[in-house]
Amino acid sequence: MAVSSDLVTASKGVVVVSKGIVTVSKGVVAVSKGIVAVSKGVVAVSKGLVTASKGVVVASKGIVAATMPLFLSQTTSEKHFLPLNFRAYPLEPKPIRLVSKLRMLLLVTHAIAAAWLLFPVPILMSALFSPLTLRSLTLKNRLVVSPMCQYSATGGFANDWHLVHLGSRAVGGAGLIIQEATAVSAEGRISPEDLGIWRDEHVEFLKRITDFIKAQGCVPGIQLAHAGRKASTYALWRGHGTVPVGEGGWAVVGPTDQRFAPNYPQPTGLDAAGIAKVKADFVAATHRALAAGYEVIEIHAAHGYLFHQFLSPLSNTRTDAYGGSWENRARLLLEVTADLRAVLPETLPLLVRLSATDWTEGGWTAADSVRLAGRLKDLGVDLIDTSTGGNVPKASIPVGPGYQVGFAEQIKREAGIATGAVGLITTAAQAEEIVAAGRADLVLLAREELRSPYFPLDAARELGVDVAWPPQYERAKN
Ligand SMILES: Cc1cc2nc3c(=O)[nH]c(=O)nc-3n(C[C@H](O)[C@H](O)[C@H](O)COP(=O)(O)O)c2cc1C
After folding, report:
1. CATH class in words for 132-476
2. Which letter, b or e, does each residue of 434-457 get, where b requires 16 or more Cβ atoms within 10 Å of its Cβ?
3. Does residue 143's CB lie within 6 angstroms of at least one atom of ligand 1?
4. If you ran DSSP here, which 8-state letter would residue 283 be given?
5. Paired strand residues for 52
């Protein structure tokens, strides 16, 4: 049972969790003359309220966890304010003292038995496996395959590799797949082998991919990208730095003629016509993406690619309307965002991936990202996919489990917009905690999804949630 901004109420009734999770975001679990009984389970409340009027909150080998919560028990007229940070909170409330241990055990047992009789289907749920609706689009769960370049295209065209790679992750149970950085123009590719969407002919095979993803109950998304000064470089396993023109490379553009690193291409600063072309390319690519069946569009404004290059004072030293002040540096991304929102149907969400910080003195900061996220929200962006880094070669990044989640949390809280968390999230419990505690709305996995395409199906089993498997694989489910 997962409830967002809502109520779970049971009047003279029970809310029962056995080996499962009830999550409430900004809501209330209210029981009047009843019981919240937790046996080996979790009631997770984010910014919510658990009330038991003349009732009891019982935890048997379970936990009631909350962020900024308020626990009320009117039987004792006592209020229990719990700690601010999400953590397991073994409930040791005053109400328990009102019943003997034996009576408590009986209550739990009866409540569980009653619930199982009333609900023959599993009542167990988790925050991670609760649906999320963005505009008119509903994702079946919060697990997202993060965009990952495959460097396996020719002339920008998708092929069997992309179909099988993305298709198998849809079979694996993700709620949303965001296809790799897909270039809006030939000069915007990172490498010669990048996927592209700059020609109408690219659409046909991409449509095959989105059809297959949708047939698995998953939502197909696409990351639209322009690499700017980091274009025309070798695919990861083919080499480092610049691909020369003689080997299939090309002339690259950026905010200025400043290189990313000595072994990277020498860019030309975009002039007014060049900026107009970038904007037109993103609009044309969005029309093609819609024709190809994508239901989520993500603008790639992270990792030191073109929009990030414009945002950061470390890479944008222009002196015209697109450089200098914060407003000027943000202008290109804001203009492209407004253009894309105007093209997209009202029903479909628009995401932006940001690098929340340059991790470098004098660079783009988390405060800048909060400010930008607010502006993007005003333009109709629905979610900020929150990554970091990539704009300067020698940033010192404190890499570790969930090391970027704090930025997603901060942007969500301070800009009031949904966020996705990404970066070294590798276990079901870690992903569950992020969503249950209201730190982010989506969890994106990259390398873990490469290791385990069926991660979502496995995670559901681990969290005690019954999710549908592809019928072809049903016999392996239990
Ligand atoms: C093979 C590979 C390719 C990637 N390509 C992209 C990409 O196209 N666009 C993007 O925004 N991030 C890309 N990333 C970054 C991931 O989306 C993700 O942000 C990063 O790997 C951290 O998540 P992880 O710890 O779950 O791998 C790529 C990562 C990997 C491993």
Report:
1. alpha beta
2. bbbbbbbbbbbbbebbeebbbbbb
3. no
4. H
5. 31, 73
Cβ of 368 closer than 6 Å to ligand 1, yes or no, is: no
Question: What is the H or E stretch that residue 414 is in?
Answer: helix 405-415
CA 89 vs CA 43, 58, 85, 297: distances in Å: 10, 12, 10, 39
Check residue 147 and report its DSSP letter: P
Report the distance separating Cα 56 and Cα 209, nearest Å: 52
Tens of pLDDT, residue by residue over 370-423, are 999 999 999 999 999 999 999 999 999 999 999 999 999 999 999 999 999 999
Q: Return the residue whose CA atom lies nearest to atom 21 of ligand 1.
A: 446
C-alpha angle with apex 475: 472 to 478, nearest 5 degrees?
135
Q: Which residues does 78 contact at the CB level (< 8 Å), separation at least 6?
A: 94
324-358 tens-digit pLDDT: 999 999 999 999 999 999 999 999 999 999 999 99
Kindly give the number of the ligand 1 atom that is closest to the alpha carbon of 422: 23
Output the residue whose Cα is nearest ligand 1's atom 11: 147
Measured distance CA(282)–CA(303) in Å, rounded: 18
Enter the pTM of the model. 0.79
| CB of 430 shorter than 6 A to ligand 1 | no
* 305 is known as an active-site residue: yes
Closest residue CA from atom 10 of ligand 1: 147
Rounded to the nearest angstrom, the distance between the alpha carbon of 448 and the centre of ligand 1 is 10
Q: Is 405 in the pocket of ligand 1 (CB under 6 A)?
A: no
At 171, list the tokens. 């079979």
CA 345 to chain centre: 21
